[in-house]
Amino acid sequence: MSSVATLHLLRTPDLPIVVAAGPSGLLAMLRDIGAEADDEYFWPGEHLLFVIQQLWNRDQVSFFSSLYPQEERALNDDARVTFLIGEEHRELLPRLQPSLQDSSELAKGLVARGVRSAEARLAARDAVTLLCEQIAALPPGCLLVLHVAPTDML
């Protein structure tokens, strides 16, 4: 099943309101009180998740929130994955620079999952670029809510 990644900016004080909506009400609440982030990632959400997993396995780069772990867990369920990316993630920027990443290495796992090689390299490169640019542009006092859900649950 295909999935979609959405990115929204949320003022940190509004986090309890979003958490109260739970995983099933998250997107509706983000549309009401958040702002959709400007992104250029047009690949399936599962590609982005796989690159995030590869970055952890390969480089121990974690996108899990160290400041809001309970809130982040409350926004995840068996079908949806949500990361709360905040100012603490800025320390990842030197390690996320797209010029330092080997997208062909990150793409190998996508190829093993049936994605064509050229598409996998582009998706991996775009994923790293997206994460790096969004973290760098994160306004003070805000969180980037990265949410991946199956298309039939949007």
Structure commentary:
The protein has about 150 residues and is of the alpha+beta class. It contains 6 helices and 4 strands. It has helices at about 15-35, 45-60, 70-75, 95, 105-110, 115-135, and strands spanning about 5-10, 35, 80-85, 140-150. A 4-stranded antiparallel β-sheet has the order 2-1-4-3. α2 packs across α6 (about 115-135). The longest helix has 20 residues, at about 115-135. It is globular and about 40 Å long. About 35% of the residues are buried. The model has no long low-confidence stretch (mean pLDDT about 95).
| Lateral arrangement of strands in the main beta sheet | 2-1-4-3
CA-atom Rg in angstroms: 15 Å
Distance between the termini: 13 Å
What string gives the helices and strands in order? EHEHHEHHHE
